[in-house]
Amino acid sequence: MILTPAITRRAALTALSASAVGYALLGPRPERNRSDGRTVLDYWEKWTGHEGQAMLRVVNDFNNSQSRIWVRYFSMGGIDQKAMIAIAGGNPPDIIGMGNFSIPAYAECNALEPLDELASDAGIKRENYASAVWPMLTHRGRLWGIVNTSGSLALFYNKTRFKQAGLDPERPPRTIDELDEYSERLTKEDAPDLKQVGFLHMEPDWWTWHWGYYFGGSLYDEASNRALADSDATIRAYRWVQTYPERLGVDRVLRFQSGFGYYGTPENPFLAGKVAMTNQGPWLANMIKQYRPDMDYGVAPFPVEASIYDPSAPVGLLDSDVLVIPRGAKHPRESMEFIAYTQRPEVVEYLSAVHCKNSPLARTSGGFIRDHPNRYVSVHAAIADSPRAFVFPRTRTWEQYVAEFNAAMARMWTLREPADNALASVQRAAQAELDQVADRRARRAKAAGGAT
Amino acid sequence: MTTLPVAPANRKPQAAGRNPAVSDRASTLTGLLWISPWLLGFILFMALPIAMSLYYSLTDFPLLEPPLYIGFENYTGLLTDSVFHKALWNTALFCILFIPAASILSLLIAAALNQKLKGLWVYRTAVFIPSLVPIVAAAMIWLWLFNADQGLINIALRSIGIEGPNWLGDRNWALPALVLMSLWNIGQPVVIYLAALQGVPQSLFEAASIDGMGPLRRLVHVTMPMISPVILFNVIIMTINTLQVFAVPYIMTEGGPDRATYLFTHYLYDNAFVFRKMGYACAIAWVQFIVILTLTGVMFTASKKLVHYRVA
Fold first, then answer.
1. d(CA B108, CA B227)
2. Contact B53, B285 (CB under 8 A)
3. Of residues B29, B169, B274, nearest to A258 (C-beta)
4. Is the C-alpha dihedral spanning A418, A420, A422, A423 positive or negative?
5. Cβ contacts (< 8 Å) between B70 and chain A: which residues?
6. 3-state secondary structure string, B79-101?
7. Minimal CA–CA distance to A328: which of A109, A146, A91?
8. Residue of B12, B58, B258 to mutate for A, most A C-beta atoms under 10 A
């Protein structure tokens, strides 16, 4: 039997108290105090690589341009989850860079500072921006974010493959029928497998939900809070989508797709020449510059159903990154001062050029288009200015809507379910979510004793 | 020569007439004081959040707004949620495929490693190394192993005239592919089985041989009963872990194709952090807890007849 010295309560209390005091005095603490007295702002952003470096340069320029505010730039992944938890925990950063599709959810939960007054004081107005931009920043009549960069989707096509197939490389398809015809001519086999295809809707599979827009449809009516997944136009669109695996063979298409490399690598199927046409944003030009600078390619508005073709009003998704000030941010005025700095035309044009994107501003300088590293930026700009440019549906249930669409698209693409049925199930699920959110909103308002 | 330790000279002798109960209470308090940092951490970071999650499961809680009490609506919603049913079914299927296969395979490997072979340490290390590989790294490697066109598995199958499936792109093969990948990582149960096998007294085998038992009967009537407590332990731990599997399907298939690999915990995560329905996610978590608790209870009850504990 081994006896140990008695450990008294006094010894225990002393040891624990000393640890606690030591932690309180010497433990870790956030470095938000500067010796020069500047107000420190924390800016969380999702960009990495050259996009992140460009934004960091903007931050450094701002910091060097004045002596009252110091912005700390933090680049991170999973920014949606981190932002949500930080805001819920009452300790958010001062500025967050998020996707514009997040605005409805955050706005309805009062998780963001409304920016109407702050933006107005800073001279930021709707007229400053391309027509499709401002609706992305607002929700239910209030302004919640300011655009950082934006880009519209367009058809990228491989001119070399066009020439090899006997197609005019300066005459991209304009209608859905032409796209089908071109795609068929651009498809090559290495029997029994596919070697090259003209076009595949699931490459990339980032926007499984947007094909209906090219047939004149949409997915959500904000006024009536109705999902529109099973509208006639959308059903026509997805019946068209299904003609591709029907024609090429489901197994062959899936096997062909399984050999695609990742988006951000030289094995990207468009860069590797496996897919001759793809619907992508202007950022693809950066990838081409990096991995296939010799690629002979063209960009045009994505084809639409013949009955709605209008070259003066191209159809395309306008996506954008936005800067928001979360609820609980300690320095909203200073944060808006930084955001306003990022909205200076020269800053916007610099960032847009580095990202290879079109500018979200209504007017650009003479040299912006001329000197832009993306030689097709004018195509993207025309789409952004078009009255038929569309944005992510402005609903807080968007993530659930997309999840249903992704699952339905998997069934439609493998021909396990006809488009009508698949879209009907998306409609049911999406509408149920919308109705539940509306019901809960009403109950919260009742519980709070106020108006919705 | 053994020297008995002597109590320190400065130790206070117990006062005559001192109440032993008081001394015990003081001793208990001192012990609690020493473990108070852990206790505080447990209460703050485990017990309290668990209790809060039970409350949140009765609310609509988007995390960015305060919770709104809605009673049992989250639980009744689960009854009609087809996606939840799908996730539950997928998880059950994953368990049915994985647990028996992993148990049998790990036992067989442990039995093989229990032999006197040259270079045994190499085989034992090789079996355990997958447990040390980070799951994300392993998932990325297996993504390419399973590639329908250029993956090594299909290349090997093609070399013997078999056309392999589109493992992760075919909804019929995606879940079995994940099971196969998970079977690569059974180092821990193997080590536990190996220890159990090595703990079976040789005298029992000798007695069984003398009684005329062949290898198969010795396996069934000596080895298995002797290691049955360890089998129970491994099966229970595997069940608990498998019902909560998340990383592998999340990384390799993102729940697809068409939710064929959409499992319980992934659906819970999506509701909590993607759909911002933390209340609903808490309800799912509590259902998961009840399922695991029930299954564990059933296994313990069934074990009374099947598990033999040695009498000391």
1. 13
2. yes
3. B169
4. positive
5. 440, 443
6. HCCHHHHHHHHHHHHHHHHHHHH
7. A91
8. B258
Q: Is the bond into A192 cis (omega within 30 degrees of 0)?
A: yes
Q: So what's the pLDDT on residue B3?
A: 47
Res B119: pLDDT: 85
The DSSP code sequence of B168-201 is TTSTTTHHHHHHHHHHTT-HHHHHHHHHHHHTS-
What does the alpha-carbon distance between residue A9 and residue B39 come to, in Å, rounded to a whole number? Answer: 17
**pLDDT value of position A138:** 94
How many angstroms separate the Cα of B228 from the Cα of each of A333, A412, B200, B234? 68, 49, 11, 10
DSSP state of A175: B
Q: Is the pTM of this model over 0.90?
A: no
Encode pLDDT of A223-236 as tens digits: 999 999 999 999 99
Which tokens is B177 given? 């592919």
- The two structure tokens encoding residue B4: 């008995």
Q: What value, to the nearest 5°, has the Cα angle with vertex A205 and ends A201 and A207?
A: 90
Q: Comparing A261 with B86, which gets the higher pLDDT?
A: B86
How far is the C-alpha of A283 from the C-alpha of B167, rounded, in Å?
32
Q: Which residue type, as a one-letter code, is found at position B55?
A: Y
**Scanning the structure block, which residue is given the tokens 């007229």?**
A127
Is residue A172 reached through a cis peptide bond, with omega within 30 degrees of 0 on the bond before it?
no
pLDDT at B106 over 80: yes
Residue B20 has pLDDT above 90, yes or no: no
The residues near A2 (Cβ < 8 Å, ≥ 6 apart) are B5
Q: Are B271 and B277 in contact (CB under 8 A)?
A: yes
Identify the pLDDT of residue B10.
52
Cα B98 from Cα B92, distance rounded (Å) = 10
B-interface mutation test, from A255, A406, A421, A444, most B Cβ less than 10 A away = A255
Closest by Cβ to B147, choosing from A16, A258, A407: A258
* Cβ–Cβ < 8 Å for A212, A234: yes
Task: State both tokens at A351.
Answer: 């960032």
Rounded to whole angstroms, how far apart are CA atoms A400 and A229? Answer: 13
pLDDT confidence bin for A123, thresholds 50/70/90: very high
* Contact yes or no for B270 and A258 at CB 8 A: no
**Which residues, 6 or more positions from A402, have their beta carbon under 8 angstroms from its beta carbon?**
A208, A209
Count the Cβ atoms, other than its own, within 10 Å of residue B31.
Answer: 12
Does ipTM come in above 0.90? no
Could you tell me if B165 and B176 are in contact, meaning their C-beta atoms sit under 8 angstroms apart?
no
Contact check, Cβ <8 Å, A9/B36:
no
| Confidence category of residue A113, pLDDT binned at 50, 70, 90 | very high
Q: Residue A152: helix, strand or coil by DSSP?
A: strand
- Among candidate residues A398, A404, A395, the one with its CA nearest the CA of residue A438: A395
Cα separation, B93 vs B99, whole angstroms: 10
Average pLDDT over residues A300-315: 96
For the stretch A312-330, pLDDT in tens is 999 999 999 999 999 999 9
